[in-house]
Design goal:
This protein is an alpha+beta fold and 319 residues long. Helix content is 38%, strand content 23%. The strands form three sheets. It has a six-stranded mixed beta sheet. Strands 2-3-8-9 form a four-stranded antiparallel beta sheet. The chain has a four-stranded antiparallel beta sheet with strand order 11-12-10-13. A hairpin with a 4-residue loop joins strand 8 and strand 9. Helix 2 packs across helix 3. The termini are close together. It binds ligand DP6. Ligand DP6 binds next to helix 5.
């Protein structure tokens, strides 16, 4: 038995929308940071009898996405029936990228358990087929997800020590999101009058942020990452029926982070398909930002994180 540990990532240039057709191929490039403080542990074992089984945090779950994904891996690699034991040390499906860490860890666990010998790039392609953001969690530090040699795969842009940004995550709800990302983004593609503008403008955002990361240019990164985030939420709001993932505390946290930056604190916000707010901070500045977020009404907890490693295998005792 082999246990893989994967971490969620948060996108600084967001992915929302797929190319038509099969394969779960994003319509736009994205760029993310992998987080150290949150983890998914996944172990696979042989299962007697037919069919696979998925156990999340100890409970049997009917996870059609994971089961369908395992069927595709089986078709490619001739796998036996397996039981997947997966555990998150953070809320699942609540806008904390549990599907990213989950699929990245699942691919790594299957690869390790059956000795498939997949390279990180190939693991990333497989993780993308499960959940596109998962492709990025194969890598630590800063990762990009864009078209490679014929396949969309993530790649490492910068390792975690080269620019050790820190993140304060303000948890404002433990609930699962009302509309899963996969459904929401398809709805946006089909109904939002802003979708075309989103697709057309994303590559320029990606290029600017990519360069800003390589230049360690925090101001430019902050400005364009917040723009990508707010543009994503404008797209969501303009979808029919509208996708509103925020609550009152989400907005209050955004206001606090904006005020901090105006006062000279190097921090910017980002929000995904859920009400949690992540404040990305320059190295050494997370404490003061986390302290400010902890005072916001409606914030349940603030988790502080450094940048994390890519998905890897660990001893079974950790699983
Ligand atoms: C808002 O990767 O969960 O977090 O590919 O359909 O599984 P699927 O979607 P998913 O969407 C992530 C959306 C996002 C932005 C991002 O991570 O880039």
């Amino acid at each position: 038995m082999t246990t893989a540990v994967g971490h969620p990532n948060i996108a600084l240039v967001k992915y929302w929308g797929k190319q038509p057709g099969a394969g779960n191929v994003p319509a736009t490039p994205s760029l993310s940071i992998t987080l150290d403080a949150l983890s998914t542990y996944t172990r696979v074992a042989l299962r007697a009898g037919d069919g696979d089984e998925v156990r999340l945090n100890g409970r049997l779950v009917a996870d059609a996405k994971a089961l369908g994904f395992l069927a595709r891996m089986r078709a490619a690699f001739d796998l036996p029936p397996i039981v997947v034991h997966t555990r998150n040390d953070f809320p699942t499906g609540a806008g904390l990228a549990s599907s990213a860490s989950g699929f990245a860890a699942l691919v790594a666990a299957v690869d390790g358990a059956f000795g498939l010998g997949l390279s990180p790039a190939v693991r990333s392609v497989w993780a993308r087929k499960g959940s596109a953001s998962a492709a990025r969690s194969i890598f630590g530090g800063f990762a990009t997800l864009e078209a490679g040699d014929g396949e969309w795969s993530a790649a490492s842009l910068l390792d975690k020590n080269s620019w050790p940004l820190e993140v304060a995550i303000a948890l404002t709800s433990q609930d699962a999101k009302p509309v899963p990302s996969t459904i929401g983004m398809e709805r946006s593609r089909n109904t939002s009058p802003f979708y075309r503008g989103w697709i057309e403008s994303a590559p320029a955002d990606f290029d600017i942020v990519r360069r800003a990361v390589l230049a360690r240019d925090f101001e430019t990164l902050a400005e364009v990452a917040e723009h990508s985030c707010l543009k994503l939420h404008a797209l969501m709001l303009s979808t029919r029926p509208g996708l509103l993932y925020w609550n009152q505390a989400t907005l209050a946290c955004i206001e606090v982070i904006r005020k901090l930056r105006t006062a000279g604190v190097p921090a910017f916000f980002t929000v995904d398909a859920g009400p949690q707010v992540k404040a990305v901070c320059a190295p050494g500045r997370v404490e003061e930002v986390a302290a400010a977020l902890a005072t916001v009404p409606g914030v349940l907890r603030v988790v502080k994180s450094r940048l994390g490693d890519g998905t890897c295998l660990v001893g079974d005792a950790d699983g």
